[in-house]
Amino acid sequence: MSIIKSKSVTRSTAAEASAGETTMLTPEEVLEQLRILRERIPDLVQLPNDRATKYLRQKSRLNPEFTHQALGAISTSATVQSAIGNTPEELLQAENEATAWGRVEGELSGLLRGVAAGNVVRRERIAHAALQAYNVSTQLVKQEDHGDLLPHVERMKRVPKYVSARRAKPVGEPPQPPK
User: Fold this and answer.
1) What is the 3-state secondary structure (H, E, C) of 21-74?
2) Around 41, how many Cα atoms within 13 Å sit in the side-chain half-sphere?
3) How many CA atoms lie within 13 A of 15 on its CB side?
C-alpha cells in the first residue's frame, strides 16, 4: 500500500453514506461551504493592522467586572441609559452574543489549526516519498539499465531539498511532474 494513499481519505460511496458513514468533503466543497457561511455571519469584517485596530482590540478587552458594574449603573439610572442610547437588556443581549461568537471563534481556530496540521502531514508524506525516490534513484542510476533516471537525479541534485518558510512559493495549483 502506498504511503500517500494509506493515510488519505477517499470519497465514500452512496451505500457507505447510507450505512451511517460520514462522506468526506473535498477541498473545493469546503471552500464552497465556507464562502456560503461567510455570507451569513453578521458583523464579519476584516480589520487593518493599524493603530486604530490596536486601540479597538485593547478597548474590547475591558474587565468583565467593570462591564458588569457599568450595566448596573445603566439599569439604575434612566439618565445614564438615555445618555448611552442602549437599554440594559440590549447590552446584555450584545454581551451574550459576543460570548456565543467567542465560542464560535474558538471552534474555528481549532478547525484552522487542524486543517493546517493536516496539510503538514500531507506535505510530509509527499516529502518522504520524494526523498525515498531520490535515494532509490541515486542508487539505481549507477546501473546501466536505469540510465533514464540520470537527468532526473541531476536535476534533483541541483535543486535545494528544503526551502525556508519565507521563500516558499504560494500554495496554488499543484506542480506538474516534469516530462
Assistant:
1) CCCCCCHHHHHHHHHHHHHHCCCCCCCCCCHHHHHHHHHHCCCHHHHHHHHHHH
2) 16
3) 0
The per-residue pLDDT for 6 is 44
**pTM of the full predicted structure?**
0.70
The grid cell for 169 is: 512559493
CA dist., res. 154 & res. 177, Å (int): 16
Q: Under a CB-based contact definition with an 8 Å cutoff, are residues 23 and 17 in contact? A: yes
For helices 150-158 and 88-140, what crossing angle results, to 10°?
Answer: 130
> Alpha-carbon distance 165 to 134, whole Å?
22
d(CA 179, CA 177): 6
Among all chains, which residue has been given the C-alpha cell 464579519? 44
Report pLDDT for 138: 97
